[in-house]
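For the sake of transparency, this paper describes our internal protein records without simplification. Because each token names a local backbone shape, the row as a whole describes the fold. One such record is reproduced below, unchanged from the form in which we store it.
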Amino acid sequence: MSILSTRAGLFADLALIIQIAGFIILCLGVMYAKRKDFLKHFTLERVTVLLAVIAFLWMGFSLLINFQVFIFHLTVLSNLLTVFHVIIGIFSLLSGIFLAFDRIIKKTRISMRTMFLLWSAALLLGIAVYMIYYVL
């Protein structure tokens, strides 16, 4: 069953929807930070990270099942994109967790902008992987 009318399963569709919704919430959080409304900013960023953790757990199971296939066929573009998506996604998720929950990484503009760029790259790669596997 697919929500988005593609070959994807329910979990892949939900993970994509959750990640896009999380990115929209992340952008709203940036807007509140620029307005100096930091309480709303922190709340929205924490919601974004929690949504990302849920999506990662849903799709992490699929990754573990297919990990050996990805590694042995790295020259295939779809597998290479998936591996890059996972690596960048893990870095962005960990940095998001550390920033949102006040651990390890100091909250500065540079660290937050770096995290935002990593998150954007992971999302774009995730959309590309979804399109390659389930649409094209």
Summary: The radius of gyration is 16 Å. The helical segments are 10-34, 38-72, 77-100, 109-135. Residues 60 and 66 are 10 Å apart (CA to CA). The chain has a mean pLDDT of 87.
